Structures are given as structure tokens and as C-alpha cells.
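Handout, section B. The chain below has 276 residues.
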Amino acid sequence: MTANGERPTIAVLGAGKIGEALLSGLLSAGRRVDELMFTERHADRAAEMSKRYGLRGVDVATAAHEADVLVVAVKPQDIEPLLDELAPVISPPTLVVSLCAGLPTALYERRLPAGVPVVRVMPNTPAVVGQAMSAISPGGHAGPEHLDIVEHVLEAVGKVVRVPESQQDAVTALSGSGPAYFFYLVEAMIDAGILLGLPRAVAEKLIIQSAVGAATMLAETGEHPVILREAVTSPAGTTIMAIRELEKHGVRAALLAAIEAARDRSEELGRQHRLD
């Protein structure tokens, strides 16, 4: 809620997959069309969004003047021209919410007028099915009331956790990129099914539903993954033989190294925009 108790008007700057997922989720959660707007530099995409959702496509200046919350959903490489356009037209108390991987709140605070509150967010792509995991962190001018607003907005597309900004690069590597690791594993398991003689369609159905079921068990039982894995792993059975091979080939170590590499890349992206 805003200071006067009303729901904030939200403008999403950049109507890509994540931007569209957020707008769609907000509409599904009961937001009115007149509470939302978006910016999109490609005219065809803007027309498609307006037709699909009945939302108003505006320019950056209009968004800054009319919205209480500006959600920045452009690619990190496109942030500089957007900030050039945004800086002359924004002022406090308009809240800026950054969904750009690796970009620190200090970048926005340096480029935008003094006092503009900024909240950094790392969402992930399951937002498109309302199952995102988003981590939020306040900048220097953002307080608990701003985090409350952002949390309420993002709950329209999934779950939200608050973390210090110093942990955002780790979050990016773990959950921001996380869905790709699961997709990679599912892809490999489907290939294994084909190798064992199953038709692709059957292998896909077996593995996808197994993944859904396993994720649901993790979410709903509250059990540690080790406990759930051990429940499947009978002495001298098929599963323990498979686990032995995974350990022999260093799958656990490879996953740890991969996530560290993703963390390092996130830090590198941030360094490109940090103050000297």
C-alpha cells in the first residue's frame, strides 16, 4: 500500500518474458487494468501486449510521472540507456524495483536523483507459471515499507524471501539460474530413457512427472532432501547403484563448481557498474 492506503500503480519497464509474467500474475491476483502499465521499445511487442491484456503501453516519462512503482525488467546490457532516459523524469517517493541480474542498487542510486528508493530483486523464470522464487534486498534509501510493497507485488507470481544485498550474487547463482540446472538434469534423464530403449514421449512423461512429484514432496513434507532420498535408496538396490555412479563421476562436485561459476559471473556483471 502507498502512504495514503491505496494500492500502488505499477509500471513495468520492459515487457519481455519476466515483465509479461509479472503483469499477467498481477492481473490474475486481482489488479485492475488501470493500476498497471508498461513500456516496450518494440512497437509490435507493445501492440501484442496491449491486445492480450488490455494494458496501456506508455513511454518512460509517462511511467515515471504516473506510477508509484517502476519495475525495471530490461536485460542488464540495456540498463544504461534506460537510466539515461529515466534520470531526468523520476523523483522520490517513486519506488524503483530492479529485476536485472547482477546490477547493484548503488548503480541506480548513483544515476538517479538523490533519495529515490531502490529494491533489488532476483526472480526466476517459473514466474511464467506463478511459481517464481524471488529474493529482495533494499538499497540505501529503501525501508521496510518499500520491502512490504515489493513483497506484495511479487507474491502474485510466486514466493519471496528477503536477503542482504551482499547475498544477491549467491542467490542469482542458486535460484536465478537454478531452473536451468533442473532442466539440464531432466534433459539428461530423458536421454537416458531413450538410451535404455524407451520411446521419447514415454521417457518425457516418466521424468517430468517424477520431477513434479519430487518437488511437491520437498515442498509439502518439510523433510530434508537427504531423508527423502534415503527413503528411495534400499540396501543393495537399484538406486544406491545409481547414486554410487553419480558420486564416482563427481556430479556433486561439478554442481558445486557450476554454481560457484555462476556466482562469479554475477559478481563480474555487478563490478562493471559499481563505483570505483
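Note. The mean pLDDT is 94. Compare this with the example in section A.
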